[in-house]
Amino acid sequence: MSLRADFLWGGAIAANQAEGAYQKDGKGMGLVDILPAGGELRWHALENPKQAIETTYDHYPSHEAIDFYHTYKEDIKLFAEMGFKVFRTSISWPRIFPKGDELEPNEAGLKFYDDLFDECHKYGIEPLVTLNHFDTPLYLATEYGGWRNRKLIEFYERYAKVVLERYKDKVKYWLTFNEINMVLHIPFFGAGLMFEEGENKDQIKFQAAHHQLVASSLATKAAKEIVGEDVMVGCMLAAGEVYPYSCHPDDMLKAVQENRKQYFFIDVQSRGEYSTYTKRMFEELGVEVEMEQGDKELLKKYPVDFISFSYYSSRLTVADTDRQVEQSAANAFESGKNPYLEESEWGWQIDPVGLRVTMNNLYDRYQKPLFIVENGLGAVDELEDDTVEDDYRIEYMRDHLEQMIEAVKDGVDLLGYTSWGCIDLVSAGTGEMKKRYGFIYVDRDNDGNGTGKRYKKKSFDWYKKVIESNGKQL
C-alpha cells in the first residue's frame, strides 16, 4: 500500500507568523501583536498578557514578520517550483473584522485573501485555510474576556460566514481552529484568556473550549450550507502520543488519562458528543461546563469531515511525582524526557516512530481521514554561498515521512502532508527568526533586521523530489 495518487503534498504557515503588515489596510490588532521576541521574555508575556499589553517592548516580531503580505506572489512561485499541491495558511480574523464585533467586514482584508488564493490557483495549488490560528482579535480579549464569553460564538460565526461566502469557489479545505487543545496549555494564544487572581482556571479554560467547540460546529454547518456538501472541514489537534514512563500499571493509567486530555476536543468535534470520561474528569477539576439549549444537538449534527494535526514529538508521563524524571520541552506541553530519544536545539525530543503511533491511534479512534498539517524541525541555519546545507532537516523529515508511509501501510487513510514553516517565519513560542523550519531561508534576524531576501536551502530540491515521486524518493 502506498500514498494515494492525489496525495496533497505541501507546506504550512500562519498569518500571524508570516504576513506582517500588522496595521496595513485597516487590519486590527491580534493577540500576537502585543508579544515580544525572545524565549523567556515571550513566555512571560504569554503567561501575563495583561502586563504585556501595558508594556512597551523593543521589538514586536509579528508587526513585520517576513512581510508575506507583500511578498506572497514571489513566495507562492517558489512553492509551485517545489511542486506543492496544497498550501496551508490562515485568514487573519482581525484583518477581516479589526475589532471582531463589527457587523460589516473590512473589504481591503477580504481583497488580500482573494488575491492570495487566486495566486495559489494560478499554479494549481489548493488552499487549506484555518479560520482561527491563534489570531482572535485583541479587542475581543480585552473587552469581552476572550472565549470565556459566549458572545464570541456569534462573532466567530459571522466571520466564518463572511469568508466562506467570499471564498466558496476558491477554498474547499477548511480548518476551524488551530491546535484547539492549546487552550489548556497556552490559554492566551488559544482563546484570548486572561485570568484574575483566585479564579478556577480549569473552569474558564473548559468553558472557553465548549464555546469553541460550538463555534466549530456552526462553522461546519455554514460551510455545508454555503459551499456545499463536497466541502471538507477539519479539526486540528496539537498531537503527540503520551507514553508511560515505565510499564508500571500506574504509569500506564496516567498515560491513558493524559492522552484523553488531548483527545477530549477531537472526541467532540469528530464524534459529536462529550465522551463519558469527561464527567469524572470535570468533577475532579471542579468544572461545570454551562451549555445552552441546542448545543448538544448542534455538536452531534455537524461533526468535522477529517482530523488534521500537528506532530513534533511524543510525550512522556509518570504517575509517582516522587520519582525524579528529567523534564523536556515538547511544544508547550509538560513532558518527561525520554532516554531513548535525541532532541532538537530547542529541547524538543525527536521521535519519528511516535508519528506512526499517533497516526494509528487517531485513525483507530475516529475512523476518519487524517491530514498531517504541521511537522518539521526548528533549527539554527547558516546561510553560506546563498544556500543552507540543512542535511539535518532532510534527515529529520525523511525519518518522519518513512514512518508516515508505514502508517498508511498499516491502513491509515491519509489525505496529505504539509510541513510546518515551509518558508522561514517567526516562531510562535519564542518569537524568534533564528528558529527556522523552512525550505526557503528568509534574510531576517531576531531583531527584524535583514534584507528579507529569499534563498533556497538544500532541502528545497530534496522536497521537490519527494513530491515528484509521491514519496517514493526520500
TrEMBL record:
GO cellular component, one term: cytosol
Top-level taxon in the UniProt lineage: Bacteria
Active-site residues (renumbered): E374
UniProt cross-references to Gene3D superfamilies, sorted A to Z: Glycosidases
Pfam families: Glyco_hydro_1
InterPro entries: GH (IPR017853), GH_1_N_CS (IPR033132), Glyco_hydro_1 (IPR001360), Glyco_hydro_1_AS (IPR018120)
Assigned keywords, A-Z: Glycosidase, Hydrolase
EC number: 3.2.1.86
GO aspect biological process, one term: carbohydrate catabolic process
UniProt-listed PROSITE patterns: GLYCOSYL_HYDROL_F1_1, GLYCOSYL_HYDROL_F1_2
Gene Ontology molecular function, alphabetical: 6-phospho-beta-glucosidase activity
Entry-linked SUPFAM superfamilies: (Trans)glycosidases
Family classification: Belongs to the glycosyl hydrolase 1 family.
Name the UniProt record assigns to this protein: 6-phospho-beta-glucosidase
